[in-house]
Amino acid sequence: MIIHDTLFWFFSIALLACGVLVIACRKPGGQRDVPGGAVCVHGGLFVLLGAYFLAVIQILVYAGTVMVLFLFVIMLLDIKKSQYVHYKVLGIIGGCLVAGAFMWELAIILNRPMQPLVTGSEEFGGTLEHVVKPLFTNYMLPFEVTALLLLVAMVGVVLLSKKEME
Q1: Exposed, middle or buried, 85 (CB in 10 Å: 0-12/13-18/19+)?
Q2: Sign of the CA dihedral 21, 22, 24, 30?
Q3: 119 is a domain residue
Q4: Residue 162 clears pLDDT 70, i.e. is over it
Q5: With a threshold of 0.70, does the pTM exceed it?
């Protein structure tokens, strides 16, 4: 049980560190690579839960396709070197306030007594059947709406970044 707890804390702290690095990273390439590491660490948390299929799908789908999508968006934006870092004081203060609020909430949660784990529904287990069946029966409409929103967002980025034709 000790190794399980140690791995959980390792993956959790690494995931939080990746989240901070996404915000703190100055170069767009780093902002593309760090979420890939976060997705892999998140897959490690799924492995600890025993959902091996979800861990593999998490890594393949997000680290593969979404990171490539980020790469194309960054390439389309054509960011100049002078545009890398422009921190504003109000933004830093707001970020610190939000981080403080999250730490306060975390302290409240950690001060509560631990509740025993309750067996959740078997709707999302770790096998292919447990993932695909609810996705294409109960959650088909949200799945398609999400796909449509991603398509519209990608077309919007292409149109916004398109340079005027001369």
Answers
A1: exposed
A2: positive
A3: no
A4: no
A5: no
